[in-house]
Amino acid sequence: KGQKGKKITLKIAKNSIRVAFDGGLRLDLSKMGITTFPKCILKLTDVDELDLSRNMLKKIPSSIENFQKLRWLDLHSNQLEELPKSIGKLQNLFYLNICNNKLTTKNLPEELNLLKNLHILNLGLNCLESIPTSLGALKELREIGLFDNALTTIPNSVKKLPKLKKLNTERNPFPDSTKQEEQTDSIKRIETLYLAEEKDLCYSCLKKCQDERDKLKKLNNMTPSPSKKPSFSLLLTPNSVAMDNQEEWRL
Q1: Which residues cross the membrane (predicted)?
Q2: Helix H segments across the chain?
Q3: N or C: which terminal CB in the chain sees fewer CB atoms within 10 Å?
């Protein structure tokens, strides 16, 4: 019958409701040792956020569709092998984290493309060999996590989503040519350029920028040899520092 998990009663569930930062209600049942979806929480479907992460769930029932107010659903770090088709009925869903499970491409429901208000989708650390092109219908997506899967390519319909700002595809077995294409696309479409005025730089950073700018001016005044183009591998800019502080995908 498998491992017996902790039984969640309605009283325990009610005591696990908190007020979220935006004033909504958050039902936090993370790290509870739950092995089966607690049916009692179907009496608490007015919550805005549901956190069932870091448990041992293998299945989410179709009754998840009863949580019509849900904006935030966190299922990461379970043992999920499939998702119900009814998840597509959560039309208010803004954030969906199903990272670190056992999901395969076959068991990823096509109904995910119905989540028209979804901004953040994390599918990292699963067993996905491909991504459905239908996810390109999610025009509001800003961030997608696809890291640590078995992907060899990313559909253009996903890469070219109009509002996409972050696409994490690290540690997938892409062919070399695909890797190069992905990196180029990431630089071109995702990174933000941060500018700083000289008065905001410390003396050391300002001196480096001025020295490199002087070198660049000298090189611009020279006629490069046709067989050898100048390299600016040591060029430092304020953006070099800013990139180190970008937010990482959380597990």
Answers
A1: none
A2: 10-15, 156-159, 176-189, 203-220, 238-243
A3: N
